Structure formats: structure tokens, C-alpha cells
Amino acid sequence: MKTRSVALMLLLSVTLGSQPGLGVAEPAAETAGIAVAPQYDTTHVYVAPEDFDRFTASLLATFGGSKSPEGVFQVTPTSSQTMSQLVLTPVGTISVFGFKTPIPYPFGSERTGYLVTDMDRAVSEAKRAGADVIVSTFPDPIGRDALIEWPGGIPMQLYWHTKAPHYAVLQHIPENRVYVSPARANLFIKAFVGFSHGRVTGDQSDAPGIEIGQPQEHYRSVQIESKFGQLSVFVTDGHLPYPYGREITGYEVNSLEDTLAKAQQSGSTILVAPYISRGRKSAVVQFPGGYIAEIHMLSGP
What we know:
By secondary structure, the protein is an alpha+beta fold.
């Protein structure tokens, strides 16, 4: 365990670098948020070990960017072993896991990891906002982690580094795509806005159903912006055709056609052909290993 911890510390310290003061748990005013910046908020993707390299190679071929050295570590509070690698693209950061052992519950259900400036304060504020702590704070070789769950059954991971990471600013900020029921939507929105110190930037009750595979219907669409980044809330009755609801992140690109061509050339499959709605052109893609993502470009006002 000691050897593995030291190895992980060395690997990530080389990869992430440091930025003085950013990751240290220093006192902060209660009015200030605990978010850092969107480039530190990662989508968590779990793939089979045999698909690991194909998946990360396809991500880089599709979006560009770089990745950390690959290693095998324990990243849960109980015994486990996983391949782990960070993929840094200009349109979002992805944490990739390929477990060589059974995955301890409830890991694998958390959709994102949010870097916070103070772990204890973040957990306290999440609970006060209405979140449940489903995995209490635990140490890892480079910091601390916890898993929380928002009203509506939305799990997320919070993490904090002893030495703060330093990633390049994103060219485009991805959107965290959250599907909730009408009964829990307002509770989730209020809770997350309060926790993130964000704001609702859009709330449309009759958004085009084509965006969720129901072209003859409408649904409620809510957008939230905060220092964590962008979050889109899809309020639906759950009558969703595949793959809607499986795509947990949406990536903005400069050219959808070029990006889809690169994705296909690197082994990905287009699940939903490009369509235009509300000023953007979108498609849904499945990468090698099974990861499903929405990809879009702006097409108008």
C-alpha cells in the first residue's frame, strides 16, 4: 500500500504540477464558493481494462489534448485496484478508470468529480443545500474525496488535492447533463444552485423534444452556470429512447462535422445523427468501451 501510494503521488505531482494556495484548505468567506474552475471538473468514465487504451486514444483523436501517464492504483476507501488515467482535452477533462477488481459500491455511479478548495466546507455546504453524503470523506495519496447524492438521485464526487493541480483553461466549457423527474427537479435545482453559488440562466418549459429523442413532444429544460461550469437539467417523464439519459456530458466543438469524422475514424459510433435545435447542431456518439457523449456546435443565436 505504501509503495502504491508513493507511486501515485509521484505520478500525479509530475502530471498536475502545482499552483500555490489553490488547493490548500484555507479559511474563506461564507459568501465565496468552494469551486475552482471548469477545467478541474472531470467526467468519470469506467471502461473494461481491455478497452482502456482504445478509449483514451479515441478521445485524443477526436478532441485533441494530452493524457497523464497510466498507472494502477487504489482510488476507493476499501480494497480495490484500477487502471487510472486523466485525459485533458480543450473541451473537457475526463478521468478514466479500468478496474481490475470488482468495483466497490457505490463507485461507478458517480458521474463527475468536482475539485473544491476546502473538502470539509464543501461537504458541509452540500449537506446544508440538501445533498446526502453516500461515501464519507476518505484520504487518498494526494488529497481527500467524498461522494454525495443530490435530490433526484444524482451522485457526484468531490475531491481536494494537497498540492493544487494546474490545467490549461478550456477552449469550450462542457455541460454536465442531468435527467430528473418533475417531482424532484425544483429540489435539485435549488440545492445545486445554492451549493455552487451559481445562477439559473435559462428555464424553458416547452423545449423541443427532439433534444431527448421525442420530436413530437416538449420537455422542461433548465441551464445553470457556476464556477464549476455549465449544467443542463432535463426534466422528463422518463420515457426516453436510447441513448438519451446515458450521455452525461455534452462537449462543444468548433466543427461538428470534423469532430464526428475524427470520432468515427478512431473507432466511435454515431448513435444520433446531427440535428439542429435552439441554435446548436448536435449529435450523440459512443466511444470505444461504451462511453456515450453528446457533441455539439453553435449554429445560430
